[in-house]
Amino acid sequence: QQQVKQSPQSLIVQKGGISIINCAYENTAFDYFPWYQQFPGKGPALLIAIRPDVSEKKEGRFTISFNKSAKQFSLHIMDSQPGDSATYFCAAKDRDDKIIFGKGTRLHILP
Amino acid sequence: DAGVTQSPTHLIKTRGQQVTLRCSPISGHKSVSWYQQVLGQGPQFIFQYYEKEERGRGNFPDRFSARQFPNYSSELNVNALLLGDSALYLCASSLGVGVEAFFGQGTRLTVV
């Protein structure tokens, strides 16, 4: 059973456009929702994170929108740049501190 | 500041062999977790250690074991390697429980 579902699997966006990645979760015990960015051959890097008592969090060009009742959250990347091309993972952390990852979205920004 | 460091970066082993992977957490971090990332998938939780005690274990066979040392560094051991163990093994450290985790670059294990 996949506890964190992520879509789309891949995404192509024009430079300057908005990239949107969506995730849904099952377990209401999750209490922390991070997004990770991973470049080929590297480990995942924490990008931005949110707790379920907050509906939106913005850091620079990156925004998380969180809908607790729908058990959904999304990442918006504004003014997408070629350097943003990477794989993005949504994740959820349970009270046992285990991080459950989505399957990832391969984002490609066209120059 | 040094981030999470893992060694070795790459490793090739033969089926049936044993392997030990090492992780040094960020200075001051007391929690270390291990994840397996198969190509094209998200990382899967293997173990978490906090203050040298195992706090959690994922759905992996007993061939996988780990430990944390008094300096908070950690080792992941995998016995009787299978081809399916080929993956990127990631170590993450955090100050404690319930806070942000930071990942190392990983160890790329190839089993032939």
Structure report:
The complex is a heterodimer of chains A (111) and B (112). Chain A has 111 residues and is mostly beta strands. Chain A has no helices and eleven strands. In chain A, the strands form two sheets. In chain A, strands 2, 4, 5, 9, 10 and 11 form a six-stranded mixed beta sheet that branches. A five-stranded antiparallel beta sheet of chain A has the order 1-3-8-7-6, with no helix packed on it. In chain A, β9 and β10 form a beta hairpin. The mean pLDDT of chain A is 94. Chain B is an all-beta fold and 112 residues long. Helices cover 0% and strands 51% of the residues of chain B. Chain B has no helices and eleven strands. In chain B, strands 2, 4, 5, 6, 9, 10 and 11 form a seven-stranded mixed beta sheet that branches. A four-stranded antiparallel beta sheet of chain B has the order 1-3-8-7, with no helix packed on it. Chain B starts with a strand and ends with a strand. The mean pLDDT of chain B is 94.
Give the topology:
The complex is a heterodimer of chains A (111) and B (112).
Chain A: E1 4-7, E2 10-14, E3 19-25, E4 33-38, E5 45-50, E6 56-59, E7 62-67, E8 72-77, E9 86-93, E10 99-101, E11 105-110
Parallel strand pairs in A: 2-11
Antiparallel strand pairs in A: 1-3, 3-8, 4-5, 4-9, 6-7, 7-8, 9-10, 9-11
Chain B: E1 5-7, E2 10-13, E3 19-24, E4 31-37, E5 44-50, E6 53-57, E7 64-68, E8 74-78, E9 87-94, E10 102-103, E11 107-111
Parallel strand pairs in B: 2-11
Antiparallel strand pairs in B: 1-3, 3-8, 4-5, 4-9, 5-6, 7-8, 9-10, 9-11
Which terms summarize this structure?
heterodimer; A: 111 residues; mainly beta; six-stranded mixed sheet; five-stranded antiparallel sheet; 11 strands; B: 112 residues; four-stranded antiparallel sheet; 0% helix; globular
